[in-house]
Specification:
Blueprint: E1 2-11, E2 26-31, H1 47-53, E3 61-63, E4 71-73, E5 76-81, E6 87-92, H2 106-119, H3 125-128, H4 137-140, E7 141-145, E8 148-152, H5 159-167, H6 177-182, H7 191-194, E9 204-210, E10 214-219, E11 232-237, H8 241-250, E12 255-257, H9 261-267, E13 273-282
Parallel strand pairs: 2-11, 2-12
Antiparallel strand pairs: 1-12, 1-13, 3-4, 5-6, 6-8, 7-8, 9-10, 10-11
């Protein structure tokens, strides 16, 4: 794992001059949304969509970013491994609900994870690399009670690696099975609907998305955890760093993401602007060929 850094520029107060007023409980962010082509957790394959949907759908567990060797519960309250290392059991938190108020259960989770394998988009690799297959998905992921989810492992694996590689990722997000089946087209398991809609367990829900324009998030008032302070988050498609900088200076946005080094330097020292740098985790993937011989 490699820790990098990402910068965000925050407007602390409205700058002087003409500006667009932002409601007190809303935040407007500028970002490049070019790569966002779907909001379906089973299909998302780029950073921006992952970042946005990470605020909409919770995973089973998450890394403790202050101590990346440890995991914190999200939708799972606890987890355990059988003595032979072949069965992983998650106990879901009580009170999990979808934004429409329906109680989320282990059956929704089992359906969601089987769905990843059956759709077989890129994210399925987070499961297939551990030996899970769509042909055995029903037996691999089972609800053994309303809040008890059981995973039959193809073979024993180190728990920390397994949690990191699968259950702290998009594939463990709990989608609303009823919504998926109701809006399914043919054998797509609701993929066409989930591309532009959300119904999962998380602090926000997708209020609207216009490709290459805006994504609007709205607070999920039935969320089981701490409610977000912001009622709405509006992400505007502004791909150019210079344009984001101008919007920050005018007070038309609250946050600019991933500005160039020149634009960051130009904003340093401005009293109404703060530059925040945060750690990001990532991978360096090395491949070697053993076929070469001298």
């Amino acid at each position: 794992m490699r820790l990098g850094s990402a910068s965000a520029v925050l407007a602390l107060a409205l700058a002087s001059g003409v500006h667009a007023a932002t409601p007190k409980d809303a935040l407007v962010m500028a970002w490049n949304l070019d790569a966002v082509i779907t909001l379906d957790p089973a299909q998302i394959a780029e950073i921006n969509g992952n970042d946005i949907m990470g605020n909409v759908c919770d995973t089973l567990v998450t890394l403790d970013y202050r101590n990346p060797s440890e995991f914190r519960p999200k939708t799972a309250e606890s987890w355990s491994v059988s003595a032979d290392g072949r069965t992983l059991t998650f106990n879901l938190r009580p009170g999990l609900k979808f934004p429409n108020g329906r109680v989320a259960t282990a059956d929704d989770l089992a359906w969601s994870m089987r769905r990843v394998l059956k759709l077989n988009f890129g994210n399925a690799a987070n499961l297939t690399e551990w030996g899970f297959r769509k042909e055995t998905a029903e037996a691999s992921f089972r609800a053994t009670g309303p809040q008890t989810f059981e995973v039959s492992l193809p073979e024993p694996y180190p728990l920390q690696l397994l949690l990191y590689g699968a259950f702290a990722t998009n594939v463990s997000m709990i989608l609303d099975r009823e919504a998926g089946e109701k809006n399914a087209k043919g054998e797509d398991l609701g993929n066409n609907w989930f591309k532009t809609n959300s119904s999962c367990v998380g602090p926000y829900r997708v209020r609207g998305w216009t490709a290459n324009d805006t994504i609007q998030l709205e607070r999920n008032d039935v969320y089981h955890g701490t409610k977000p302070a912001l009622g709405r988050v509006i992400v505007r498609h502004v791909p150019e760093s210079g344009a984001q900088r101008l919007l920050i200076e005018k007070g038309d946005i609250d946050v600019a993401r991933l500005l160039s080094s020149d634009d960051l330097k130009a904003l340093e020292g401005k009293k109404d602007v703060r530059v925040e740098q945060t750690a990001m985790h990532g991978y360096i993937h090395l491949m070697f060929s053993r076929a070469y011989s001298r």
